[in-house]
Amino acid sequence: MLAGEIRIFAGEGGWLAFAGFVPLGIAFGAVHALMPGHSKSVLALYLAGSPVDLVRGIATALVLSLTHVAMSVLIVLFALPVVSAVLGSAGRAPLLEDISRGFLGLIGVWMLWRAFRPPRLRHPSSEGMSVGVIAGLVPCPLTLFVMTYAVSRGAPEAGLAFAAVMMIGVALTLCAVACASIFARQGIMKLVAARPVLVERVTRGLEGGVGGALVLIAFFKLL
After folding, report:
1. Is a pLDDT exceeding 80 seen at residue 101?
2. Cα–Cα–Cα angle for 47, 102, 92, nearest 5°?
3. Which of 61, 191, 195, 210 is disulfide-compatible with 174, CB 3.0–4.6 A?
């Protein structure tokens, strides 16, 4: 159905008919983001183990969504002639995936070091944004397909329009994951709030566990 709409737009150039279909991209993006991938587990793990507030957690999810979709758009618009050197198969980018996993592994090592090194270090406000960018380096396979199809049909603007609204849907799903992770962490903290020593241990344990998980994810993905 989407391919048909892009084909019609390419032939007739009418935004009105296409505009009626594009908003469905929001729902489509939200459902698509529920599928495996999209760095949901990385986002949930990081926010569960890092004491960021709700606003910063949502900001991290938004940065991840923007980077995830934007990488696909940039690859198609600026690197289509050499895309075969980056993409191993349809919808995948092994080089970018390796870079992303490698950086996530470094973040995991940093979190492990911070969890076990007294005294507790201050968490830089830019850390969450960095995680969002790094986790989002893996391009969205659906956006890659849509953009490539739209460009091949001579209608890149249609692909850009769909990518923009689909990004909203992806962001909605990832923001929901972020909120759930932060609320779960805050719930655990409330249960042990009356025991400050236990709070410190639980916080360190969460951060150390998340750091170890990120290192393992990076290690096995890079094998």
Report:
1. no
2. 95
3. 61
- 106 belongs to a structural domain: yes
**pLDDT tens string 195-222:** 766 767 777 777 777 778 878 877 776 6
- Say whether 123 sits in a helix, a strand or coil: coil
State the total domains in the chain. Answer: 1
61 is in which domain, residue-wise? 25-30+39-222
End-to-end CA distance of the chain: 38
| pTM attached to this predicted model | 0.74
Q: Please compute, for residue 10, the number of CA atoms within 13 A of its CA located in the half-sphere on the CB side.
A: 16
Q: Any residues with CB less than 8 A from the CB of 41 and at least 6 apart, and which?
A: 217
The pLDDT confidence band at residue 112, using thresholds 50, 70 and 90, is confident
Residue 6 resides in a domain:
no
C-alpha separations of 65 from 136, 172, 211 in Å: 7, 9, 22
Do residues 59 and 129 lie in contact, with contact meaning Cβ atoms separated by under 8 Å?
yes
Nearest alpha-carbon partner for 120 in 190, 44, 207, 191: 207
Instruction: For the chain, state the CA radius of gyration.
Output: 20
2 occurs within a structural domain: no
Share of the chain above pLDDT 90, in %: 15
